[in-house]
Amino acid sequence: MSAKQKHSLAMKRAIGLCIQGDVTGAYEYLLRQADIGSEEREFARQLRIRFLENNPDFQINSADTWVQNVVAIYYRYFTCVLTKRMSLDQGEDMLLAELSNVVAAQNIEEAEEKLKQEFHARGYYFLGGKTLPFWGPYIWKAQDSRMAMSNHSRDSGRNNPRRRPTRQ
Question: What is the mean pLDDT of residues 11-38?
C-alpha cells in the first residue's frame, strides 16, 4: 500500500470516528499512526484546538452578544459530548442548565421554542431540535421563499400522524 493510500485511509477512519461522535477517538487514532501526512497532522491539530484544549476559541460570526452567548452554549455542549467528557444525558443536563440562564425553561424543547422567538425578534431564523443523538440549532439571517416553504414543510411534519417516527 502506498503512503498516499495509507494517509487516505487514516483520514477516512478519523473522519468516520468524528461522524460517530468520537472526536477524542479520532484524535488519538491519528496520534497513534506512525506515518501520517501533512493533511492528517493538520486535521489532528484542528481537532485539538477546536475540541480538546481547555478554552477553545469559538469563532462566532455575529456582532450580537446574545447570539454569541447562545451559540457558545451549544458549542460547549458539542465539545463535551463529542469528546466524551460527558455522557449524552449529562450533556443534555448541562445544555438545559445553560440555556435556562438565557431563557426560563423546564426542558430543552421549551428552551428552544423561546430561543426561536428571541432569535426572530433579533432578525434571525432559528430551528432547534435533535438530530439523533445530538441537540443542535440551525441559525440563519436570510432566506428566500423556497427555503421558507421547505422549513414550513419540515415543521408541519412534526405532528403529522403519517410521519415515520424517529428512533431514540
Answer: 90
CA atoms of 54 and 103, how far apart (whole Å): 26
Would you place residue 5 in the very low, low, confident or very high pLDDT band (cuts 50, 70, 90)? low
Determine contact, residues 5/11, Cβ cutoff 8 Å: no
Rounding to the nearest 10 degrees, give the CA dihedral for residues 83, 86, 90, 91: -20
Burial of 166 (0-12, 13-18, 19+ CB in 10 A): exposed
What is the spatial distance between Cα 64 and Cα 23, in angstroms, rounded to a whole number? 29
DSSP-based three-state secondary structure for 103: coil
Give Cβ neighbours of residue 100 (< 8 Å, ≥ 6 apart): 111
The closest alpha carbon to 99, from 151, 59, 134, 137, belongs to 137
Which pLDDT belongs to residue 147?
56
d(CA 116, CA 125): 7
Amino acid, single-letter form, for residue 94: M
